[in-house]
């Protein structure tokens, strides 16, 4: 362990599985399941800087470290799709598995409900997508689970009837409007609040100021985003030659903050409190808040849709509970614990619309 205490996430712990997800022997609640990611303290020496750089290069699905042999990419893709079929193609099987259970929907934001764009402040969601999410929320408990700060993601989604888990699940709030009576406040029983990292707030503010003053002026294109309980250092618009200096600068700032850890998303370094909380924990918290604490009962069908490494924690929770379906949004083969795939936000929208139609048909048949 270094005195800096920066933690590197082991994304290689992710494994494939097919639908329905097999149960593991130990549930994730309380920690210790066999699929838990291995968060290891690392010495930030030259070798580790090198592996971070490799990981930064791999953080965009379009970026290949090596060109594939002719035909190899197709074979790899076919093999991957066989193991992670399209949630649209397998929709009927999914609907059959969900029959008689309470469906609950969990949606990541960036790359899932909005396409990835260069400027994080412009990652808006289309009105069509908003209507699709609104339709789902009118029928099923629905949550947005995002790395963004909760207020920011709410300003993009603008649907008060949803649950919001911002800052990678470290800031959870229940609906502030009833999904079926738009504009009417929800009753107090639906108002959930969970902020497991609240004591870190002053430190996060301090580190945010330090990162803005040290990183942005010296690394052209770098952008630091304050997500309240986590900080995003974006390098999507940074020349690749400056990625190592950028990483060194972030590392230098973190040297004085042993309680923080560094993780990676899509062309972004993320600074977070070193607590055992992630999107998987947020998913478990929300399921409990919705009355589905018991992982052994087959009464709920959670559907989690996400595109990023951070969503893998939630996919692993579903697999460990043997409940519902994890859906990875990606058109490229990736290591994942999700069962299904969708290619892009347009397919996510189609999937959400289908969920609404199937549920409406079921209501008609039952009446
Ligand atoms: O959990 P998410 O809702 O997926 O949020 C993860 C991060 O998303 C945003 O960054 C990503 O999207 C940007 C806009 O498309 C893109 O420019 C950036 O390269 C991506 O990493 C957001 O800005 C971050 O704060 C979130 O942590």
TrEMBL record:
Keyword annotations from UniProtKB, A to Z: Hydrolase
Functional note: Removes the phosphate from trehalose 6-phosphate to produce free trehalose.
Keyword DNA damage: no
Species, as recorded: Sorghum bicolor (Sorghum)
GO MF term list: trehalose-phosphatase activity
Keyword Lipid metabolism attributed: no
A Pfam family recorded for this sequence: Trehalose_PPase
EC number annotated for this UniProt entry: 3.1.3.12
SUPFAM superfamilies cross-referenced by the UniProt entry: HAD-like
This protein's name: Trehalose 6-phosphate phosphatase
Listed pathway(s): Glycan biosynthesis; trehalose biosynthesis
Family: Belongs to the trehalose phosphatase family.
Reactions catalysed, as given in the entry: alpha,alpha-trehalose 6-phosphate + H2O = alpha,alpha-trehalose + phosphate
One BP term from GO: trehalose biosynthetic process
Required cofactor names: a divalent metal cation
